[in-house]
């Protein structure tokens, strides 16, 4: 399915990713899921192996490859190994462009070497208890006081929230201007007035630390502004297509994995004297899912190519995001059904895949918001 997208260098990188994950992540995954957080050590090991900051310039210790296919390969391998909650995708796919494209040379020197080595784990804080899809509705404020910003507010559902040493906080610097008064400000671990709440108890993605963040007269230097003051909303809009593409890549990889697990089960499990896959209903169902997953893979590969060429539109990213994640939930549901009672047992990979799939249509922009973006593009 991949042959039209990847070249030999990407397949070499895939082997590196696969071996790294099998050695450093898979044996610890159950333990991390029980703890609700991965061991920080895996981040440093990933940095040393070249799995962080693939598209960051080599002078900062990055891979120097401005090619999203490397990101996609790592995302696929993480899903393929049955790993969830590593948080690498958020760091590499979502946060990286803010720190490479919107920063000053001084900020890049401060932050990018640690970003690539795994010493500096990152997060982005958009969602609040009262504002999710409506980014213009954020209530967190950042008021200028001399050469500092004073930040007040709270964020929730923040991926990597507990581990993060650097959080890009979406805050209102000019509350009267709505979306035109939003800025992006970096808050670092140890900033006065910055605290973290409880580890959130999620349905799936158990190994990923998802936290509440609190800012109580939190002071950070004005030098921690990234991009332009009051232009944060536009910076976010510019980078959200990449985040949505990353989610779509993982969604298709998850569909492929769930289908492979279920095909193996359908050939093996017998009922009424024959493998369950030989019943016409089941065979047709698997044929249908296989077709839809192939079509999804083809469109996502096209979107990766378009992104690399600088042509991926917000509308196509929205199409990819909603379609692939809704398909992922459909595949998960049907595959659990085909596994029967075993599909409901957490020790079976399909059960975990089903639990981990549910968030995909929600974060990174809900299906409804994606359809809104597409609908508006149609002049409606």
UniProtKB/TrEMBL annotation:
Its cofactor is FAD. Pathway: Siderophore biosynthesis; mycobactin biosynthesis. Catalyzes the dehydrogenation at the alpha-beta position of ACP-bound acyl chains. This results in the introduction of a double bond in the lipidic chain, which is further transferred to the epsilon-amino group of lysine residue in the mycobactin core by MbtK. It comes from Planosporangium thailandense. Residues 230-378 form the Acyl-CoA dehydrogenase/oxidase C-terminal domain. InterPro entries: Acyl-CoA_dehydrogenase (IPR050741), Acyl-CoA_DH_CS (IPR006089), Acyl-CoA_Oxase/DH_mid-dom (IPR006091), Acyl-CoA_Oxase/DH_mid-dom_sf (IPR046373), AcylCo_DH-like_C (IPR036250), AcylCo_DH/oxidase_C (IPR009075), AcylCoA_DH/ox_N (IPR013786), AcylCoA_DH/ox_N_sf (IPR037069). Signal peptide: none annotated. Residues 123-218 form the Acyl-CoA oxidase/dehydrogenase middle domain. Its main location: membrane. This is Acyl-[acyl-carrier-protein] dehydrogenase MbtN. It comes from the Bacteria. SUPFAM superfamilies: Acyl-CoA dehydrogenase C-terminal domain-like (SSF47203), Acyl-CoA dehydrogenase NM domain-like (SSF56645). It is a multi-pass membrane protein. Keywords: FAD, Flavoprotein, Membrane, Oxidoreductase, Transmembrane, Transmembrane helix. Belongs to the acyl-CoA dehydrogenase family. It is found in: Membrane. It holds the Pfam family Acyl-CoA_dh_M. Residues 8-119 form the Acyl-CoA dehydrogenase/oxidase N-terminal domain.
């Amino acid at each position: 399915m991949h042959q039209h997208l990847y070249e030999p260098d990407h397949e070499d990188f895939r082997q590196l990713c696969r071996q790294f994950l099998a050695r450093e992540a898979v044996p610890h995954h159950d333990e991390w899921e029980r703890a609700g957080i991965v061991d920080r050590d895996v981040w440093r090991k990933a940095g040393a192996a070249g799995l962080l900051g693939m598209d960051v310039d080599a002078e900062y210790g990055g891979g120097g490859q401005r090619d999203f296919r490397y990101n996609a390969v790592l995302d696929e391998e993480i899903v393929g190994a049955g790993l969830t909650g590593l948080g690498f995708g958020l760091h590499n796919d979502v946060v990286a462009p803010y720190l490479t494209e919107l920063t000053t040379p001084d900020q890049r020197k401060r932050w990018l070497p640690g970003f690539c080595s795994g010493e500096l784990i990152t997060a982005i804080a958009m969602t609040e208890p009262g504002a999710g899809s409506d980014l213009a509705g954020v209530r967190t404020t950042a008021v200028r006081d001399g050469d500092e910003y004073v930040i007040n507010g709270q964020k929730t559902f923040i991926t990597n929230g507990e581990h993060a040493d650097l959080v890009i906080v979406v805050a209102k610097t000019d509350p009267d201007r709505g979306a035109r008064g939003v800025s992006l400000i970096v808050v670092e671990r140890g900033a006065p007035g910055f605290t973290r709440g409880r580890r959130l108890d999620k349905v799936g993605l158990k190994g990923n630390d998802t936290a509440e963040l609190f800012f109580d007269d939190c002071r950070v230097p004005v030098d921690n502004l990234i991009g332009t003051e009051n232009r944060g909303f536009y910076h976010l809009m510019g980078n959200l297509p990449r985040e949505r593409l990353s989610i779509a890549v993982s969604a298709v990889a998850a569909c492929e994995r769930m289908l492979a697990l279920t095909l193996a089960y359908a050939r093996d499990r017998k009922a009424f004297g024959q493998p369950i896959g030989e019943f016409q209903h089941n065979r047709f169902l698997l044929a249908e899912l296989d077709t839809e997953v192939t079509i999804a893979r083809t469109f996502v590969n096209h979107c990766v190519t378009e992104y690399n060429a600088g042509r991926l539109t917000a509308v196509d990213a929205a199409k990819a995001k909603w379609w692939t994640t809704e398909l992922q939930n459909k595949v998960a549901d049907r595959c659990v059904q085909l596994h029967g009672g075993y599909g409901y047992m957490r020790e079976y990979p399909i059960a975990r895949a089903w639990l981990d799939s549910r968030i995909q249509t929600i974060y990174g922009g809900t299906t409804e918001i994606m359809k809104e973006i597409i609908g508006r593009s149609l002049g409606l």
